[in-house]
Amino acid sequence: MRAIRDRTDESALPLIGIYEISKILGATLDLDQALRDVLNVLSSYLNMRHGAVVLNDEAGRPVLAAVTGMSLQLARAGGIKYPFAAALRTISTGIPQVVPDAAEEPLLAEYIADNEALEDERISFFCVPIKTTEKPFGALSVERAWDGSAQYVFEHDLRFLTMVATLIGQTVSLHRKVVADRQMLMKDTARLQKKIAEAAPIMPIRGLEDVVGTSEAMARVFGQVQQAAPTKATILLRGESGTGKELVARAVHLLSQRGQKPFIKVNCAALSESVLESELFGHEKGAFTGAVAERKGRFELANGGTLFLDEIGEISSNFQAKLLRVLQEGEFERVGGNKTVKVDVRLVAATNRDLEAAVTKGDFRADLYYRLNVVPIFLPPLRERTGDIPLLAMYFLKQFNDENGRALSFSDSALNVLQCCYFPGNVRELENCVYRTATMTKGEVIEEMDMLCRHDTCLSSTLWHRPGDAVAPSRPMSPPVKVSGPIPTAKEPPPPAPPPAPAPAPEAAADPESEAGERERLVQAMERCGWVQAKAARLLGLTPRQIGYALKKHNIEIRQL
User: Fold this and answer.
1) Which domain covers residue 449, as residue numbers?
2) Which residue among 343, 392, 482, 508 has the highest number of C-beta atoms inside a 10 angstrom radius?
3) Between β-strands 263-267 and 306-310, what pairing exists: parallel, antiparallel or unpaired?
């Protein structure tokens, strides 16, 4: 009975091997790793030695794609004397071959010279073609030791290896198709980007006069807006808070065929789910307490025009399903009503959230994501276009002068200070900084010492201050762009300015030991104060804003006691 069981177990090994190999090939897109794992299965399960996979390159020449016993790099450098002539014969004819005693085959003499065969063993060489439905494009080869008995049946191993080679062929063929499609997509993307760059306007385009910038990053945005606005496609504006997404959304509307129709905007984060539903879809009289009259929603008000949904990533899961129906069907019912209302609305959405991560976590519906993310336009943060800072600062100062009847201007040293700031709040923070500084400046020229960061009252300095620092950190910047002449207005393009050299983020030069010590001090202070941020801030001599930023920077989770 034991002998029968042993024979049964041994006969099941090929089936187990096929099962393991199919799992390997279907579990990863890393072809090199998958082929190595397949050869390891052949070696461990079926005692097939010196496995190798040979594939034709683009020129049709056979090259080693995977080996066992050494690294592929060493094997290609001559670590083994692989019999390419024997493999090429299998590839060209498409016929599997088996050499019962490899020592008698001249083509295999060097390859098996270092084989670990015992004195009473013979080494057989198997080589089967790798193919799909077309002609072979590779070969799988292994060696197997046997004692020369007549009971050994080569056909069994040959059939098994042919099945393995077929699985490898399908995987390699699919991998090559994916690579080819990706290369084609990259070429198409590069070609489109080149066309957009060539079409990028030098003069501000209608609707984007208030979006000041001559940097390469903003030129790409202008080109994408000009390309996408005339279409009916849904546009998703991506970028950090304060990068000007609403201005770009309005420009998309003005540049479209709906430019003379209504442009309606809604901040989704500012309204609860029930209020947002009423705002967007409207309600019937008596639908709820306080609904004393019928009211049209924003979708109806934007009919024929454009609806801008800001902070779209903040809407709840339940409301996502309701919004999806409107985007798919172009129809909805008012709150408390049963009459279907059809609308023709061009949707522009904006978010500063990572929607891809939200979809992965299940916080955002994948089907709604695909409906919104038709034409994504990424607005760069201000730190990635520092060459635009002087132009934006002078533009905001011109606005301040017009509103307050003053004639202020910047000195070169003041513009240099602005250009060295990190501005985590982006353009919105820069505008705030200009208005505050202009308000507190007594003379007609804003000098370096008039800047609030020179008095430790700058918002940016506070946000990026680290406990223990004497002054707020500042990143090294290139020399400021000197801008002469009149301050640019909204209707006149600002003079071009070369973008400065890339600069590292302010944390780049931080000492890892001091960072770890700072994090430990923060945790100790929070634990001592019962995880109340205001108390910990007083204990460390910081403001609540500073302690909040420090906790976020060090990724310290707030505990609920």
Assistant:
1) 383-509
2) 392
3) parallel
